[in-house]
Specification:
The structure is a single chain. With 415 residues, this protein is α/β, with parallel strands linked by helices. The chain is built from 16 helices and 12 strands. A 7-stranded mixed sheet has the order 9-8-7-6-10-11-12. A 5-stranded mixed sheet has the order 1-2-4-3-5. Helix 12 links the parallel strand 11 and strand 12. Helix 1 packs parallel to helix 3, helix 1 packs across helix 16 and helix 14 packs across helix 15. The radius of gyration is 21 Å and the shape is globular. Bound molecules: nicotinamide-adenine-dinucleotide. Nicotinamide-adenine-dinucleotide binds next to helix 8 and strand 7. The site of nicotinamide-adenine-dinucleotide has 21 residues, from helix 8 and strand 7.
């Protein structure tokens, strides 16, 4: 049965809402998007043929500030998924207390089947189609699955042609996740992994875990690879990693930097496992059930379900992907007293540095990497501290505590 991530998101909201005093209609408003925009536009292929492309932008809520969230280019962009992702952006931004609301969007297309010139025309047309509904103080998109800094740069360039209300530098703030030389911020690329690392380090301190810990990370893209590198540099033992083709396991620990280089040269983790006698090839399903101290899902939604939740052996789960644990699995993990750092806290480092990028564009500033990382650390540590306090006071999960913190901020912003 297909799991609907928006239903999981609403289950999480309704659990937390019992702890926060608010009129019923406010909960209703927070349960549905404020606006769903559908756009349709022609794309001229290199062959001269024209295809009509359908796209969406969900603007979930803007009480805290402009809608904020990524654009996904994928053949199966699904409205329930986009709604869930825009809802989580609303919660995430309120959790780290940045002045943004929740948004998300996407195009129903497989960009891997397009030439570079077609991808550029597609991105520029999408920017023109969205132009009336976005802007530095309205809605600020960013990269997501299959969208890159280069795509943000094309979209920014196209958007700037359409409006004269701000300076050129301020108009760049309409998109974040841009390349560094084109108005992007230093530190954005590694920010999500780094934010997750700061939160994990704080949790290890609270639980007095020491550093003699094993870690398994599912997904070795932007988020998984940076997180794995940072925890390994910190002294934890990364024993398992995976990508879409499968995973690699070594009880003695993996050389994360060597694997980063191997992936850069085009190899998969399954290839790496085959080439090293000290390593074993494992499936993605098996990785989730390894007897490790820390499990990090950093790939897709809904990978931990009611079926495999009873078999999870990790002592702590750090949710770096969005929505990797279904609502049903979450209940099982709570009963089993396995602490879960929720996605809306653990992976909020990325949008926090997107906020820094927006701020630098709006104020014509350029921050050093050291300044970006210092500010990121401060905001992540503060958000974790507040979540931990609420969790202790109410004796609830970190997820519910994070939602309570976010709901309190949203309600204050509405007033
Ligand atoms: P990415 O495209 O860079 O990497 C995704 C990784 O997952 C790749 O290694 C891919 O091989 C792997 N993968 C794909 N299908 C898989 C499967 N079936 N099983 C196992 N692995 C699979 O994406 P990313 O930016 O690292 O994002 C990963 C997750 O983190 C997503 O859920 C995303 O929404 C979330 N996230 C990303 C950011 C960010 O700043 N990039 C911020 C917040 C949340």
């Amino acid at each position: 049965m297909k799991i609907n991530p928006f239903e999981s998101a609403l289950t999480q909201l309704n659990i937390a809402a019992k702890y926060v005093r608010m009129p019923g209609w406010v909960l209703e408003v927070l349960s549905r998007p404020e606006r769903i925009i559908e756009v349709n536009f022609p794309l001229e292929k290199d062959s001269g043929a024209v295809e009509i492309i359908k796209g969406y932008r969900v603007q979930f809520n803007n009480w805290m500030g402009p809608y904020k969230g990524g654009l996904r280019f994928h053949p199966q962009v699904d409205m329930d998924e986009v709604k869930a992702l825009s809802f989580w952006m609303m919660i995430k931004n309120a959790t780290v207390n940045i002045p943004f609301g929740g948004g998300k969007g996407g195009l129903e297309i497989d960009p891997k089947k397009l030439s570079e010139a077609e991808l550029e025309r597609l991105s520029r047309s999408f920017a023109r189609a969205l132009a009336p509904n976005i802007g530095p103080e309205i809605d600020v998109p960013a990269p997501d699955v299959n969208t890159t800094g280069q795509i943000m740069n094309w979209m920014t360039d196209e958007y700037i042609k359409k409006t004269q209300k701000y300076t050129k530098e301020q108009l760049r703030a309409t998109f974040t996740g841009k390349p560094v030389g084109k108005g992007g911020s230093l530190g954005r690329e590694e920010a999500t992994g780094m934010g997750g690392f700061f939160v994990l380090r704080e949790l290890m301190g609270k639980l007095k875990l020491g550093k003699d810990l094993t870690v398994a990370v599912q997904g070795f893209g932007n988020v998984g690879s940076h997180l794995a590198s940072l925890v390994s540099e910190y002294g934890l033992k990364v024993v398992a990693l995976s990508d879409s083709k499968g995973g690699v396991y070594a009880e003695e620990g993996l050389d994360v930097q060597e694997i980063v280089s191997f992936k850069k040269d085009g190899g998969s983790l399954a290839d790496y496992a085959r080439k090293r006698s000290s390593c074993e090839a494992i499936s993605n399903a098996k990785l989730l059930e390894l007897p490790v101290d820390i499990l990090v899902p950093a790939a897709l939604e809904s990978v931990i379900t009611k079926e495999n939740a009873p078999k999870i052996k990790a002592k702590v789960i750090l949710e770096m992907a969005n929505g990797p644990i279904t609502a049903g699995a979450d209940l099982i993990l709570n009963k089993r007293k396995i602490p879960v750092v929720p996605d809306v806290l653990a992976n909020s480092g990325g949008v926090t540095v997107s906020y820094f990028e927006w701020y630098q564009n709006m104020h014509d500033e350029k921050w050093s990497l050291e300044k970006v990382n210092r500010k990121l650390e401060k905001m992540m540590v503060e958000a974790f501290g507040e979540v931990w306090k609420i969790k202790g006071e109410k004796r609830i999960s970190m997820r519910t505590a994070t939602y309570i913190l976010a709901l309190r901020r949203l309600l204050a912003a509405r007033k």
